[in-house]
Amino acid sequence: MRVLITGAAGSIGSVICNGLVDRGYDVVGLDRMVEPEGFTGSWFTADCADPDAVAAVFENATGSGGVEAVVHLAGIPHETALPEQLESHVVTTAALLDAMVDHGVNRIVYASSNHAVGRTERTTVSPPGLAVSVQPRPDTFYGVAKIAAEALLRLYVDRYGLDAITMRIGSFLPQPETRRHLSTWLSHDDAVRMVDAALTAPDCGFAVLYGISANTRSWWDLEPGRSLGYHPRDDAERFSATVERGAPSEVDEVEARHVGGPFVLEKFFRPALDRL
Ligand code: 15L
């Protein structure tokens, strides 16, 4: 399958590009950065927030065989001012969706985030974990923009019959570093498994899953992911002795109160429409 990956030069993008190439995908990279050394597929250097640039990518990729699906990973991974967040997550998603409709590309796999529901109190979460159907409860403008992008995907699924799989990713890291990560970790290998499953699940319409490994202390409902074919294999517990060396700090305790952990404590960029 020929897949366009946005944010292909980023930390998650480069892992996903390599992992999908290993699994036999034909990868087309798109990023504001130039092609990283060793990248083997086709590459476009462009800004996904620019609809003309995105349309040109689809035109040119079509010329060399056409794109069959999009994996949208590009976006600022931390909190900033609202206008910047909306451009980074919502405008980019809109540009990609319009190009998909124009070129008959039917599937998008989207990197949303746990921060879409990050303000949810941990005390309200009980087994089997936080449902994907829970009310949006962003902890930041970053989380607001992720929820808005999810809503845009839903709209295009309903209007154009696309398949859109939104992955609310936890903590994508080589290994867990904090107590919270023992619950929120997404390993590199599981991230590749997840994107592969999202690309190949039969007709799913609009679907949401939590992008988390099979952590013993997970507080997310992983069943919606499993029903789409995402079967995580890694467990943060294997790192617990290192992570839990020493008593929990005040930061650990504050982070444990909401599912979004440290983002709940982020600097708040108010007034909302102030540019940085
Ligand atoms: C995210 O969505 C962020 O992009 C990343 O920087 C981490 O903070 C992660 O969530 C997390 O919750 O650990």
Describe the 3D structure.
By secondary structure, the chain is of the alpha/beta class. It has nine helices and nine strands. The chain has helices at residues 11-22, 51-63, 82-103, 141-160, 181-184, 188-200, 223-227, 240-243, 250-255; strands at 2-6, 26-31, 42-45, 69-72, 107-113, 163-169, 171-172, 185-186, 206-211. The chain has a seven-stranded parallel sheet with strand order 3-2-1-4-5-6-9, sandwiched between helices. The chain has a two-stranded parallel ribbon with strand order 7-8. Helix 4 links the parallel strand 5 and strand 6. Helix 1 packs across helix 6 (188-200), helix 2 (51-63) runs parallel beside helix 3 and helix 3 (82-103) runs parallel beside helix 4 (141-160). The chain starts with a strand and ends in a 21-residue tail after the last helix. Bound molecules: D-galactaro-1,5-lactone. The site of D-galactaro-1,5-lactone has 10 residues, from loops.
